[in-house]
Amino acid sequence: MRTVIKYVKPYLFTALFALIIKAVSVFSELAIPKMLAIIIDENVPKGDMEAVLQNGALMLLFAVLTFLFNVIGNRASAHVTGWIARDLRSDLFKKTLYLEACDTDRIGLSSLTS
């Protein structure tokens, strides 16, 4: 676990940002059925068309925000993952440069490069 934390630490702010954005996205996505329940249970029986339209517009706004938050969160997560993978590959490459010849022969060049 310490090894993983060493690679995540430089990108902790972006990783936490992605996590928070994804959490907001989940909560906004879960709010949409609740709004629909309010429309069906409260507004429709009263015949309040204005409230139905307002809550429908609010649902649409939440859907758009959910989409945007998902895109932003996924992009941030992908960036962090790419950065961590780049650092891991770089460290692995540096480590293989200093292997003894007998270790390189034992492991095999194809295993070292993949």
Describe this structure in words.
Helices cover 90% and strands 0% of the residues. The protein contains five helices and no strands. The mean pLDDT is 91. The longest helix is centred in the middle third of the chain and has 49 residues. The protein is rod-shaped. It has one domain. The chain is mostly helical.
Topology readout:
Layout: H1 2-8, H2 12-46, H3 49-97, H4 101-107, H5 109-113
Low-confidence stretches: none
Report how far apart the termini are.
Answer: 23 Å
What is the total domain count? 1
Categorize the overall geometry: rod-shaped
Strand content: under 5%
Structural class: mainly alpha
Percent helix: over 70%
What's this entry about, in short?
The chain has 114 residues and is mainly α. The protein has helices at 2-8, 12-46, 49-97, 101-107, 109-113. The protein has one domain.
Brief descriptors of the model:
single chain, 114 residues, mainly alpha, 5 helices
